């Protein structure tokens, strides 16, 4: 109950509390209430979940502090088996238990005399975003959901692995259980040091570098959050899909917050596509994954407050409709004045890009029409060739496809990802006029957050960051067989 990463606002009171989840495990929480609270007045409230491996003193304290300053009641907590919460052995994780922790917070808030049971929301940061959605899919008491830099840990457990690699992982972790049973405790390998450091090792790159920057330095270090869980915890996530039923949250609303530069953005894109209306996505410019943990200059608190007010406050449905109409008007007027991608608009107040599904069908249709016209004028074909196999693609007329064509010939390594695609990395492509990809087998696509070209051999769910470059016209059956070094060249 120390080492908070943000200073408590002078108008906010923080009270340490304990309560139990439905499995009887004691959870340690912090209750944030406005100072001078009138306990006779019912208020809206929210449960705030930490990133996967994080604790209440980190990102949740930032959100709870600010939202309580704005009039809400907020509850943060240490997940079971972590921090000051109960549960043995330590550092065990489970998709069911961690989703249950969100609902246990709703239990606690709903017993407070000054909380309106009909106005309780869930806000999940990183991994807790997935847990909050999972909890809301079955717990109808959760009236609205907000995710920030969402991670779906059940998707992450299988991501980038072939069926053979997943089977090998199951075998390795299953045998690990014998060793854990023999030793009397499960293996736990922390990712971050006991004490904060000042330098990040050069070999740590990409998203792992962001995690290290937050968890291992003074920025967000906490002795109760050294990263990772017991090795065999992954078995549960391999066997349990967190968000298969996300569409059942409807008609309750979901707000997705994601950084423009976040390498994890595809998790939010995938969940956004699967979720039913009402839903909204805010893309924060010049923002990476961990910036939405603690950077109050980037976390869109005004939009969060408006979302909660619209959907938990009186007249919420009407206010929601008004804001959707305004957002749609902005979507159709801003592109005429500035070079802004059509599926996102910008809110001047905080320079936040808002994606609304009502406009996506029209923007996708426009992009497809333009693409069809340009393809009639010129057809660019490329060859992707390994030692044994060759696939021929016909590119569309987008700028991104033209830029890829201009980089050829290209010799690079092909990499398998998930169980439906092969990828390689060109120089960055401009997707301003590129149509969204349908993710169908044989499609050649570009995943903008990571900058990789994707060759699909099995279907992929729609994704707002996945753009189509072309289609295979021959050899599509060989995509899955590619390996090692490939040559990408123009077909005359």
Verbal overview:
- The chain is of the alpha+beta class.
- It folds into two domains: 12-152 and 190-227 and 242-320, Alpha/Beta hydrolase fold, catalytic domain (Rossmann fold, 3-Layer(aba) Sandwich); 377-491, Cyclophilin (Beta Barrel).
- The protein is built from 13 helices and 19 strands.
- The protein has helices at 59-69, 95-110, 127-138, 153-158, 163-183, 206-215, 234-238, 265-274, 291-294, 301-312, 316-333, 357-377, 399-406; strands at residues 12-20, 26-34, 43-49, 73-77, 115-125, 142-148, 254-259, 279-284, 345-347, 352-355, 380-385, 390-395, 410-413, 415-417, 421-424, 443-447, 452-456, 466-474, 485-491.
- Strands 1-2-4-3-5-6-7-8-10-9 form a ten-stranded mixed beta sheet, sandwiched between helices. Strands 13-19-11-12-18-16-17-15-14 form a nine-stranded antiparallel beta sheet.
- α2 (95-110) packs across α3 and α10 crosses α11 (316-333).
- The protein is globular, with a radius of gyration of 24 Å.
């Amino acid at each position: 109950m120390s080492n908070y990463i943000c200073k408590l606002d002078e108008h906010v009171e923080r009270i340490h509390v304990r309560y139990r989840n439905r499995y009887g495990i004691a959870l340690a929480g912090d209750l944030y209430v406005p100072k001078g609270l009138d306990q006779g007045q019912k208020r809206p409230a929210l449960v705030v979940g930490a990133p996967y491996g994080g604790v209440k003193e980190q990102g949740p304290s930032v959100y709870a502090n600010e939202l309580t300053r704005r009039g809400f009641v907020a509850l943060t907590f240490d997940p079971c088996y972590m921090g000051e919460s109960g549960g043995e052995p330590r550092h065990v994780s489970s998709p069911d238990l961690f989703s249950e922790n969100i609902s246990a917070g709703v239990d606690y808030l709903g017993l407070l005399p000054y909380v309106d049971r009909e106005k309780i929301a869930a806000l999940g940061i990183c991994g807790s975003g997935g847990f909050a959605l999972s909890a809301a899919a079955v717990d109808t008491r959760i009236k609205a959901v907000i995710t920030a830099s969402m991670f779906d840990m059940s998707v992450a457990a299988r991501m980038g692995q072939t069926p053979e690699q997943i089977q090998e992982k199951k075998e390795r972790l299953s045998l690990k259980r014998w060793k854990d049973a023999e030793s009397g405790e499960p293996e736990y390998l922390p990712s971050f040091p006991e004490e904060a450091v000042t330098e990040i090792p050069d070999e740590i790159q990409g998203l792992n570098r962001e995690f290290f920057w937050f968890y291992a330095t003074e920025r967000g270090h906490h002795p109760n959050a050294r990263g990772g869980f017991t090795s065999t915890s992954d078995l549960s996530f391999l066997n349990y899909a967190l968000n298969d039923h996300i569409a059942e949250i409807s008609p309750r609303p979901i707000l997705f917050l994601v950084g423009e530069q976040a390498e994890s953005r595809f998790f939010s894109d995938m969940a956004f596509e699967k979720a039913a209306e009402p839903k909204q996505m805010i893309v924060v410019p010049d923002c990476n994954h961990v910036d939405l943990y603690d950077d109050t200059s980037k976390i869109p608190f005004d939009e969060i407050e408006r979302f909660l007010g619209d959907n938990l406050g009186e007249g919420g449905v009407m206010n929601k409709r008004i804001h959707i109409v305004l957002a749609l008007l902005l979507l159709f007027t801003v592109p005429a004045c500035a070079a802004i991608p059509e599926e996102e608009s910008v809110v001047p107040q905080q320079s936040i890009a808002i994606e609304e599904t009502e406009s996506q069908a029209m923007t996708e249709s426009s992009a497809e029409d333009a693409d069809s016209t340009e393809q009639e004028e010129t057809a660019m074909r490329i060859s992707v060739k390994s030692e044994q196999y060759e696939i021929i693609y016909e590119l569309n007329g987008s700028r991104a496809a033209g830029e890829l064509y201009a980089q050829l010939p290209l010799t690079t390594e092909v990499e398998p990802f998930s169980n439906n695609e092969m990828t390689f990395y060109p120089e960055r492509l401009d997707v301003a006029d590129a149509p969204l990809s349908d993710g169908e087998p044989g499609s050649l696509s570009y995943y903008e957050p990571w900058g990789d070209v994707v060759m699909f051999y099995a279907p992929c769910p729609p994704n707002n960051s996945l753009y189509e470059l072309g289609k295979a016209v021959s050899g599509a059956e060989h995509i899955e067989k590619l390996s090692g070094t490939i040559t990408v060249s123009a077909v005359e």
